[in-house]
Specification:
49% helix, 161 residues, mainly alpha, two-stranded antiparallel ribbon, 4% strand, 2 domains, 5 helices
């Protein structure tokens, strides 16, 4: 059979309340009261007055921590505004887009594409085996798969948005 736990006196409750206000951990409170951490938690949660005190202190600590985080965030936004900024150089203008696709180049099927042909899909046709048509123009030097026009469409359009 278990030994019956000693009930807390008013002095014990006051001491635990003071420890909660100090921000002590449940493990430390348990040590100071001669209990395990779990026993201290159980007693505090079962005692309505101590449980309310714990909730108030937890809420207060969270508010203080949140307030500190907000102050730090505001400081980090305001500090750069106080410091003199160096005059930055203007950005170079964007290069002009490459010329439009050469209308003289005919579209190709997938199996007609060579290693140096643009692989940008430009159309769909139910009459064609595979169903897709590709640009087929010569690849650009800087692109592993597309001609200059389709490389710009695939990768350069995001910069313009």
């Amino acid at each position: 059979m278990c030994a019956q736990a000693k009930s807390w006196t008013d002095a014990d409750r006051d001491r635990v309340a003071a420890l909660l206000i100090e921000g002590r951990s449940m493990g430390r409170i348990g040590q100071l009261m001669g209990l395990s951490r779990s026993a201290a938690i159980g007693r505090i949660y079962r005692d309505a007055e101590l449980h309310r005190q714990l909730e108030r202190e937890t809420t207060r600590r969270k508010a203080v921590q949140l307030g500190d985080k907000v102050k730090k965030a505001i400081r980090s936004m305001v500090e750069p505004l106080k410091k003199p900024t160096l005059q930055s150089r203007p950005l170079p203008p964007d290069p002009p887009p490459p010329p439009l696709r050469n209308p003289d180049v005919s579209l190709k099927l997938l199996f007609e594409l060579g290693p140096a042909d643009c692989r940008f899909p430009v159309g769909e046709s139910r009459q064609v085996i595979g169903g897709f048509l590709f640009c087929g123009e010569a690849k650009a030097e800087h692109s592993p798969a597309y001609c200059a026009y389709h490389h710009h469409r695939a990768h350069g359009m995001a910069k313009e948005r």
